[in-house]
Design goal:
It is globular and about 55 Å long. It contains 13 helices and no strands. With 291 residues, the protein is mainly α.
Length: 291
């Protein structure tokens, strides 16, 4: 279903564009994470027949992702800054309503390997530690105008790391960009390119090259993990998703003009429930697609 693939890609792009939630989380909770990982791997190393299917699937998904990414760069970044607590409440709704769905769909696998549940704790610790030790709090980050060979390599490596996080559920690539001081500079540069100002095209291009190399590298590892150690991987992913709640709560501290972490007073139950309704609605769409 073309519309469903478009919606999936669109939702992934929105998640990838702001700190707190990864596109991999969206892919996982919407039930196409395995297909997503397999398709990328088949595109790189698969036989021609599988490669054709992968191209078709990723093309449909990619159209939605590109549309969502453009909208996020032009609109969502400013909305995110102005209404951070509403958006954060929405994302927490996404996560907490999604986790029971993930557990339910992987029930057979998880119930057979209950002793591996400690991987949940590992996942929580990983995301919480990345968020807690985030050295970036506000500010405009690095200056993309001062390009040098060393800085170009840094931007390339940042692209590899970021896409690896975006593919993994629970770890936000945008949060890692904040840690590396590149989130706001890259968002601004991409917005300028969309407005046909190519002053910072080179660092964005190098970042994109890093993204491609990183995607091809990490996907095969994830695919093998899901095939050989599925229970451990699923438990880890659930932990990463739980840990991302803390990342979302701390998200306001990473803005250009830092705000306090989201507490109960700032939490908005309406947006939280909207987030849950979106997840349940997408889950319903997935059921319709299967029928």
């Amino acid at each position: 279903m073309i519309i469903m693939q478009f919606i999936r890609g669109f939702c992934m792009a929105l998640a990838d564009s702001v700190p707190g939630v990864s596109g991999g989380t969206i892919a996982f909770l919407l039930g196409f994470y395995d297909q997503f990982i397999t398709s990328i791997d088949d595109l790189i190393t698969g036989p021609n027949e599988k490669r054709k299917k992968a191209v078709l699937f990723l093309l449909k998904l990619g159209v939605g992702w590109v549309c969502g990414f453009i909208i996020a760069m032009l609109v969502l970044s400013s909305v995110f800054e102005a209404h951070i607590y509403f958006i954060s409440s929405l994302f927490i709704g996404f996560i907490l309503f999604a986790i029971p769905i993930v557990i339910k769909e992987e029930k057979n696998c998880l119930s057979q390997q209950k002793k591996m549940a400690f991987f949940v704790l590992i996942g929580i610790v990983i995301v919480s530690a990345i968020t807690y030790f985030n050295p970036v709090s506000g500010g405009s980050g690095m200056d993309l105008s001062n390009m040098s060979f060393g800085f170009g390599v840094y931007v390339f490596i940042a692209g590899m790391i970021t896409i690896s996080a975006m593919v993994l559920p629970g770890i936000s690539g945008s949060t890692l960009l904040l840690i590396m001081g590149l989130y706001l500079p890259l968002v601004t540069a991409i917005k300028e390119i969309l407005h046909l100002n190519f002053e910072h095209f080179l660092p964005v291009f190098l970042f994109g090259c890093g993204v491609l190399v990183g995607a091809f590298s990490v996907v095969k590892i994830i695919r093998k993990a899901l095939e050989r150690f599925r229970a451990q991987t699923i438990y880890l992913i659930v932990g990463l998703m739980l840990g991302s709640v803390y990342a979302v709560v701390m998200g306001p501290t990473t803005l250009e003009v830092p705000k306090p972490p989201m507490g109960f007073r700032e939490f908005n139950i309406i947006f939280f429930l909207i987030g849950g309704a979106v997840i349940l609605g997408l889950q319903k769409l997935k059921g319709i697609e299967k029928n």
